[in-house]
């Protein structure tokens, strides 16, 4: 089993007892901190995955926070092969501590970053350009800050006698197989999400899984898919509306990651009151001598 390091050069491992205070602190920077903020909440509330959280040794004077791994599947399956990072956008100069971190992070190897605020990624690129190249996939963060007054989403009439049900783990493989970034998230995480978080599917009258949507370990409503033969029946809007309600009731701020070119998803979430707040980046950092290593960046299916 891989050793969990208690500290790096500039960062120290947090105890679980410290996490509520960390959540309160980075909550000051919502919605820009939303992904990291809600990753901490799902970790404390549901322990969907074994993440390890680190803050600077000078926290909160230099407020940079990391978690390892940053995603649940990487080529070598190593904890410190991927990470997520947050730093307030008006204090990005403190990311110099990340650039200097050579214990927790091996900059001579490919590194995988899950959705990261574009301003943070730009700062990382400033120092990483001397080391290697960055393969980037962009997404837009849409947040529902003020829920709209909608009709009761629990009283829904489905086309052709379909019904909406909480998913069960037997559907994890199907959902994972059709998830656009399934090389960056393992099937086991989908099993745990279905077991512990709101995950719903629309089933046809014959029992086929027609459409689905789940809440991620980082709090987002994601992996919304509708099988081609069941499209244009309104299932996506119904799922999004219902999951928004459930996520809100569980104390989370609903948000989604949408590819910039996905006008259909933008229109769907606009109907529910979601608004774009910032751009995010999923990236692979490749040292110059490792430029041919494989594994694409991927984006959400939104």
Which assembly state applies to the chains in this document? single chain
Question: Strand count, sense and closure of the main sheet?
Answer: 8 strands, mixed
**N-end to C-end Cα span:** 35 Å
Radius of gyration: 19 Å
Topology as H/E string?
EHHEEEHEHEEHHEEEHEHE
**CATH-level-2 architecture of the largest domain:** 3-Layer(aba) Sandwich
Rounded mean pLDDT is 91
What keyword list fits this structure?
single chain; 302 residues; alpha+beta; Aminopeptidase; 2 domains; 8-stranded mixed beta sheet; 4-stranded antiparallel beta sheet; 8 helices; globular; disordered C terminus
Your description of this structure?
It is a single chain. The longest helix is centred in the C-terminal third of the chain and has 15 residues, at 235-249. An eight-stranded mixed sheet has the order 1-2-3-4-5-12-6-11, sandwiched between helices. Strands 7-8-9-10 form a four-stranded antiparallel sheet, sandwiched between helices. A hairpin with an 8-residue loop joins strand 2 (52-56) and strand 3. It is α+β, with helices and mostly antiparallel strands. 42% of the residues are buried. It has helices at residues 19-26, 34-46, 96-99, 118-128, 172-178, 187-196, 235-249, 263-271; strands spanning 11-13, 52-56, 65-68, 82-86, 111-117, 132-143, 163-166, 199-203, 209-215, 221-226, 255-258, 275-287. Helix 1 runs antiparallel to helix 2 (34-46) and helix 5 packs across helix 6 (187-196). The chain folds into two domains: 11-139 and 280-290, Aminopeptidase, CATH 3.40.630; 159-277, Gcn5-related N-acetyltransferase (GNAT) (Aminopeptidase, 3-Layer(aba) Sandwich). Pfam families: FR47. Residues 162-291 form the N-acetyltransferase domain. InterPro entries: Acyl-CoA_N-acyltransferase, Acyl_CoA_acyltransferase, GCN5-like_dom, GNAT_dom. GO terms for molecular function: acyltransferase activity, transferring groups other than amino-acyl groups. It comes from Tribolium castaneum.
């Amino acid at each position: 089993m891989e050793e969990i390091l208690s500290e790096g050069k500039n960062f120290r491992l947090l105890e679980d007892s410290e996490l509520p205070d960390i959540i309160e602190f980075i909550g000051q920077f919502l919605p820009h901190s939303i992904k990291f903020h809600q990753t901490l909440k799902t970790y404390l509330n549901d322990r969907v995955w074994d993440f390890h959280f680190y803050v600077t040794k000078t926290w909160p004077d230099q407020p940079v926070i990391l978690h390892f791994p940053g995603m649940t599947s990487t080529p070598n399956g190593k904890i410190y092969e991927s990470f997520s990072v947050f730093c307030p956008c008006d204090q990005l100069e403190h990311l110099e501590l990340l650039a200097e971190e050579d214990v927790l992070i091996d900059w001579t190897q490919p590194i995988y970053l899950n959705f990261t605020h574009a301003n943070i990624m730009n700062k990382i690129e400033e120092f990483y350009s001397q080391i290697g190249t960055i393969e980037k996939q962009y997404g837009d963060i849409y947040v529902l800050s003020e829920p709209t007054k909608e009709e009761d989403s629990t009283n829904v009439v489905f086309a052709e006698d379909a019904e909406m049900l909480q998913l069960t783990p037997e559907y994890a493989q199907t959902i994972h197989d059709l998830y656009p970034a399934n090389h960056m998230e393992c099937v086991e995480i989908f099993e745990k999400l279905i077991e512990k978080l709101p995950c719903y599917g629309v089933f046809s009258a014959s029992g086929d899984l027609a459409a689905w949507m789940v809440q991620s370990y980082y709090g987002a409503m994601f992996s919304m898919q509708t099988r081609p033969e069941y499209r244009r029946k309104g299932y996506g809007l119904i799922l999004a509306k219902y999951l928004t309600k459930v996520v809100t009731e569980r104390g989370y701020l609903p948000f989604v990651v949408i590819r910039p070119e996905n006008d259909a998803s933008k229109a769907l979430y606009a109907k529910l009151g979601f608004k774009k707040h910032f751009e995010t980046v999923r990236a692979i950092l490749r040292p110059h001598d490792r430029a041919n290593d494989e594994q694409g960046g991927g984006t959400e299916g939104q």
